[in-house]
């Protein structure tokens, strides 16, 4: 599989883990098997655009954004030095976002907070 296919596989893996889906759970949500999700994440198979759209719905994004993320993978880099100014956490990150992306980021953080709360309750049971 080509470089784009490899990068899409990485995007799928990262998003699945971020949303705490198992391969079987995610597969069930889109009408596929967990082993098929595994083959997508290992780049042994390529998703059809309709499958990518179904997956994107569960990742609260679009297929186009997932493809764009995969295309931009080679452009990412990590700075070798620390920034001179201290970081202020999420406020510093949100500062650079457009208002609609700020709203999405806030909703995602609230989702993560709720997910942590639910996980803590489940661990107690």
Describe what this molecule looks like in 3D.
- The longest helix is centred in the last third of the chain and has 26 residues, at 99-124.
- Helix 1 (3-18) packs across helix 5 and helix 2 (23-30) crosses helix 3 (34-41).
- The protein is globular.
- The protein is mainly α and 125 residues long.
- It folds into two domains: 3-75, Orthogonal Bundle (434 Repressor (Amino-terminal Domain)); 90-124, no CATH class.
- Mean pLDDT is 81; it is low at 76-80.
- It is 66% helix and 0% strand.
Secondary-structure blueprint:
Elements (H helix, E strand, L loop, with lengths): L2 H16 L4 H8 L3 H8 L7 H10 L4 H9 L18 H6 L3 H26 L1
Give the gist of this structure.
The protein has 125 residues and is an all-alpha fold. The chain is 66% helix and 0% strand.
